[in-house]
Amino acid sequence: MNDRQTPPELPQMAAIVSLTKRTGYVYPSSDIYNGLNGFFDYGPLGTTLKDNIRRFWWESMVERPPVGPDGRPLQTFGIDSSVILNPQVWQASGHVDGFHDELTDCAETKKRYRADHVMCYPARLNGESEMLGYVSVMSGDDAVEQLEKRYRFLEKSLSGKKLTRADFKDGVPYIELPEDEQKKVLAPDASAIGTLGAPREFGLMFETSVGALAGSDSKAYLRPETAQGIFINFRNVVASSRPRVPFGIAQVGKAFRNEITPRNFIFRSREFEQMEMEWFCDPEESDKWFEFWVHERREWWNRLGVRSENLIVRPHEKEELSHYSSATSDIEYRFPFARGEFGELEGVANRSDYDLQQHAKHAKVKMDFHDQANNRAFVPHVIEPSAGLTRALLAVLCDAYRYDESRPSKEYLALPPKLAPIKVGVFPLIAKEGQPEYAQKLNNHLSQFFTTRIEEKQSIGKRYARMDEIGTPFCITIDADTLTDNTVTVRDRDTGAQERISADKVDVYVDAKINPGAATLGGFKP
Ligand code: GAP
Fold it and tell me: Which of 232, 307, 318, 334 is deepest in the core (most CB within 10 A)?
């Protein structure tokens, strides 16, 4: 069985979308009105799965943060800021002026490009004076290499004639070409000239108005990232919690972006959730902490239950860096829609003191940290691990998706037990002879500790299949023997193996499987 096998009739991603809707993980938003592009609703199982991921992040980052390189536990504080902030926040952060893109669409490849990143080089055929048009490539250190490749590609269709670069050496951004000239550009990856459209500006922040009167005075924005809510509370947290540098401030919450191309299900949506931490440190130590957090966050995705072979860390090229970042590494996952390539789950960025300095300037307040022990004041630098919660949910679902013709449910979700929305199914084998009553009692006991689902109807095979499909790791069956010897069978979702165990041990058994290797009380060894 190939765990990335595809159902015969559907590409894997389509199968996952269909399964998640059918079982209550994710629905298209406003479904009865034909949906709204880029928006999704989370059903009963999706809400619990999302909450389980969020809780694991919160425990790992805030409640039980990792031990630092010097063996001391790190110090982090959780906050929950408003979604709508004073609009000056977004002026200071650079989002009002900078959070929009000039985009151009290629009619042939359907690819969309930042118009300032498409570099155009005029080209002519050897020995001819007339210009052929412009060959374009994406800007970057390898632009010349890309250009050579494009020339060779074109020469093949020019029956051996040689193409040369004409006139200007460094290329011109598509956005700077006059309209008439834009029509002569061969887009990156296109085979015909003139397929790129006129650049159009897209603001990525959703606007709203605060108060009864709409107008420029009341204009506000839905936050496009949770991070700024943290920066503007830096002084409050320092004053109220009296931390020592380094320390972190974390929050989880909704973010909104009017994405130009929401796509790939919940991967890129217009309303999503982020799990962000700003790590305030001594400027001298920012490189050390950057390395620490890149490593730590990569490990976290593994601990969450995402398979290591589907994860990579990708350092950003210089030209990819955001305006605030001096270094960024993305943690990426091999999503099924990315044709074997990887898509970003989380970015770890060195934001230096950019945000604190910006807010100091715009709000006219000091953002210094007073290091009493060493009698000095400085504006901390910031390392930011910023992960998508809804994207994490998608990665967890993709990683758990299995297709196996030989199983009753064919499709099932091998979710890590700690994340599974329902941990235990409790079934009386038959709905008589005292079995339902026993099952009810056992369920009442187990449901104090775990999410359980008791089911009496249909054949036991069908009940197992339904639990497999939603990713329930354990099913407990009560049969005639249970009533005499107080033993039950426990079925493992992934192997289908069944074990007979004492009913009074079921809680401990399930708990050990959900939290393998969990810290044991009384287990301290100096
Ligand atoms: N504060 C930094 C920041 O927001 P980002 O790379 O734009 O950085 C961080 O976003 C994470 O948020 C991404 O790695 C991704 O997981 C998630 N994310 C960003 N845009 C998203 C979208 N449109 N839909 C779903 N998740 C998104």
Answer: 232
Alpha helix segments (H runs only) across 157-207: 179-182
Q: Is the CB of 386 under 6 A from ligand 1?
A: yes
Instruction: Kindly give the parts of the chain with pLDDT less than 70.
Output: 1-10, 126-131, 140-142, 159-160, 166-169, 213-216, 338-340, 519-520, 523
**In angstroms, what is the span from residue 72 Cα to ligand 1's centroid?**
30
The reply to whether the predicted model has a pTM over 0.90 is no
Look at the alpha carbons of 407, 411, 416, 421 in this order and tell me if their dihedral is positive or negative: negative
Q: Looking at ligand 1, which residue's alpha carbon is closest to its atom 15?
A: 388
Strands (DSSP E) along 373-444, which ranges? 376-378, 381-388, 401-403, 411-413, 424-428
- Strand 219-221 with 207-209, pairing: antiparallel
Spatial neighbors of 145 by CB under 8 A, at least 6 apart, are none
Per DSSP, what are the bridge partners of residue 137?
Answer: 119
Q: Ligand 1: distance of its center to the CA of 387 in Å? A: 7
CA distance 207 to 223: 9
Q: Could you tell which of 324, 391, 396 is best to mutate to test the pocket of ligand 1, judged by most ligand atoms within 8 Å of the CB?
A: 391
Residue 351 in contact with ligand 1 by CB distance below 6 A: no
- As beta bridge partners, residue 279 has 248, 383
Q: Which atom of ligand 1 is nearest to the CA of 259?
A: 23
- The CA distances from residue 113 to 17, 38, 109, in Å, are 27, 19, 11
Number of the ligand 1 atom closest to the C-alpha atom of 276: 1
In tens, the pLDDT along 391-416 reads 999 999 999 999 999 998 899 999 99
Ligand 1: residue whose CA is nearest its atom 10: 386
